Each structure stands twice: as C-alpha cells, then as structure tokens.
Automatic annotation (TrEMBL):
InterPro entries: Dimeric_a/b-barrel. It comes from Vreelandella olivaria. This is ABM domain-containing protein.
Amino acid sequence: MFHEIWASREEFEAHCQRKEIQDFFAKHVEAPDGDIEDANVCVYTDEPWNFDAPQV
C-alpha cells in the first residue's frame, strides 16, 4: 500500500504518464504472468467539494 500526497492533480497525472510507472503497471499488473493480481488506485481529497471556489 502506498499513501502519497501530491501538490496538485496535474502533478499526479504527470507522474502517471511517466514511462517507468506505465512499465511497472504493464509488467506487474496487466501482464498475465504479473505478480499483482489486482490493483486499485484511488485518488481522493479531504477537502470538501468546491472548497477553493471564489467567495462571492
């Protein structure tokens, strides 16, 4: 289990596009002989919806 905190959603998405990350999932999760049977990547925040909306 990993618990990571990212500065922004954009930085997390850029991380997910890295070749090393894509290669890891291809080899260990997606491949029929991969050693991870099931993976669940969740993105969440503890901030309420619209928390940074401009105050009117």
